[in-house]
Design a protein that fits this description.
hydrolase; Rossmann fold; alpha/beta; Dienelactn_hydro
């Protein structure tokens, strides 16, 4: 219990700053796997040690102020030892892009050499007096993100987790078991859906525990605030940093994962109707809710119905209220069909609503209208989530015409094939998809992305390895505590992001753009990342300014982590 609160308090304390000053020390070391090749890295050490360590593998432009800033953020934001590792050697720091390209080609063509460079950095951290030796993780950007995957596929055993940010998803050798969890963060306009499918298959062949998260309309180098081509995305940078932070917290054993149902539900039955069709939902109000200011979440139930005041959806509504949201478990089938026990009747009802999407959308709209009109609710902050059958419904709803009251839709293990036709030029809500990697109901992910892109949706899709349909249902055979926790945390993070910013803040990241899922640029050497990052004195100043927005987003993330952790203690 004490550990959870300490971690949450540390997050809240350090992310309040809107700017960051680089705080690193030089570390001269060698690669013993390559004749003691000389290397120069940079370490940032938190006030409280020993601590877990995170090794950063740099992009193609070698170690510069970008990696030093990330090392400092790991220290100040998360309390970890951050180490910006060297791959090429100190003589290549001030090289030009053609030299960096040549070097990158050397390492990408020699997996053993690349592995050795990364392992040398891991060894340095494992032996560092301020590091907990068995709590070392690796992350990498662009070229470094490719290195992270190479390192993992070659059977690294000394790290507890690996994170790849916009790394090249090339063909990786699968002749080892991956011994640590892997998080892949990918731009929807960077990697093709086919490349991601191939990576999933390779990770499965290596028996890996993995999560792959994709961001719509996001190009290569989306975390690089120095990018001169305008590819930096505040949305994707903030969201990917949050995913990394919770992933590392789990890998280091800093906090528990999984959500727990409340000891009891705290809901009130609400009778309402859809054009005269009688419905009964269940409302949960957070303590201290303010008039016209409280965000709200409408929950569309799974295929057995809303299940009454003690059902699954009422439990989720209660959890949302504990986190500060008005939670409403909506009714779809009618006041006389709260809990549908018969399998045949469930099939009959779900078939009715899936084939008559206009009726499905109408039922959902009735709940949205009811909640948006509630005296405590901020009508500009209404969100919509759904489980299984309900997950299908919230996506169908987002495709309907004139849907502007809902800011975010979240399908949890929804059936995402045979969706409703798109009736709008631009999908207004942010679409956050949370699916199991083994869930056939998800369908073909490439086709889903193409459909969302055709609808000009801003989307984010996460898939979790070895996770099946129904993974959020406590006590069910498919329940997966890790996927449940990570998907719930992702949802809360997106709610917070949208609540704190106007819709236009993220609109340009995806809305109004079409995305080619065919052959795209190689995102390794050809990206000329060296031309996007400066190494002079001005770089630190521009970094401090450019990270301001990113850091402000992290304040909300820390608060959500604290709320989530406290919920485990109640």
């Amino acid at each position: 219990m004490k550990l959870l609160l300490v971690v949450a308090a540390a997050l809240l304390g350090v992310v309040a700053s809107a700017q960051i000053e680089i705080q690193v020390e030089e570390v001269s070391y060698t690669d013993p796997y390559d004749g003691d090749y000389p290397l120069l890295g940079y370490v940032s050490i938190p006030d409280e040690t020993p601590a877990p360590a995170v090794v950063i593998i740099p992009d193609i432009s070698s170690v510069d102020d970008y990696e030093k800033t990330r090392a400092t953020m790991l220290n100040k934001d998360l309390g970890y030892v951050g180490f910006a590792a060297d791959i090429f050697g100190p003589d290549f720091v001030d090289a030009n892009s053609s030299v960096w390209r040549e070097q990158a080609g050397l390492y990408r063509g020699n997996n053993s050499l690349f592995f050795g460079r990364i392992q040398a950095a891991v060894d340095v951290m494992m032996q560092h007096p301020d590091v907990i030796a068995d709590k070392v993780a690796v992350i990498g950007y662009c070229f470094g993100g490719t290195g992270i995957l190479t390192y993992s596929f070659l059977g690294a055993t000394d790290v507890v987790g690996a994170v790849s940010f916009h790394g090249g998803l090339t063909d990786f050798p699968v002749d080892q078991t991956i011994n640590h969890p892997v998080l892949v963060l990918s731009g929807g306009a960077d990697d093709t859906g086919t490349e991601v499918d191939t990576l999933e298959n390779s990770l499965n062949a290596a028996n890996a525990t993995w999560q792959i998260t994709r961001y719509s309309g996001i190009e290569h180098a989306f975390t690089n605030w120095n990018d001169t081509r305008g590819r930096y995305s505040e949305r994707a940078d903030s969201r990917s940093w949050q995913e990394m932070a919770t992933f590392l917290g789990e890998a280091f054993g800093s906090f528990e994962y999984g959500t727990n149902p409340p000891n009891s539900t705290d809901v009130a039955a609400v009778d309402y109707d859809d054009n005269g069709f009688e419905l009964t939902g269940y409302l949960s109000i957070p303590p201290g809710a303010e008039m016209d200011k409280t965000p709200a979440v409408v929950i569309v139930p799974d295929w057995d119905g809303v299940s009454g005041p003690d059902g699954y959806e009422a439990e989720r509504a209660t959890l949302l209220a504990q986190a500060g949201y008005v939670g409403f478990a909506a009714d779809i089938y009618g006041a006389d069909k709260q809990q549908v026990e018969s399998f045949d009747e469930r099939v009959e009802l779900t078939t009715l609503y899936r084939t008559n999407y206009t009726l499905f959308v109408s039922r959902i709209q009735a709940a949205v209208d009811l909640v948006a009109a509630h005296e405590l609710v901020d009508p500009e902050s209404v969100f919509l989530i759904g489980y299984c059958f309900g997950g299908t419904g919230v996506v169908d709803y987002s495709f309907a015409a004139d849907v502007t009251k809902v800011k975010v839709v979240v399908p949890f293990h929804g059936g995402l094939t045979g969706l409703a036709p798109i009736e709008t030029d631009v999908v207004y809500p942010y679409v956050l998809v949370q699916s199991g990697g083994e869930d056939d109901a998800h369908g073909n992910n490439t086709e889903l992305e193409m459909m969302l892109d055709a609808a000009n949706a801003t989307w984010e899709i996460s898939r979790y390895s070895n996770v099946y349909h129904g993974f959020t249902h406590w006590g069910g055979g498919a329940y997966n505590p890790l996927a449940d926790w990570r998907s719930w945390d992702a949802m809360m993070g997106v709610f917070e992001m949208v609540t704190k910013s106007d819709h236009d803040d993220y609109e340009d990241d995806g809305h109004g753009h079409s995305h080619d899922h065919g052959d795209e640029d190689d995102h390794g050497e050809e990206e000329m990342e060296g031309e996007e990052s400066t190494n002079g004195a001005d770089d630190a100043e521009s970094t401090n300014g450019a990270t301001s927005a990113c850091w402000s987003q992290h304040q909300g993330f820390a608060g959500l982590v604290l709320l989530s952790m406290i919920s485990f203690l109640l």
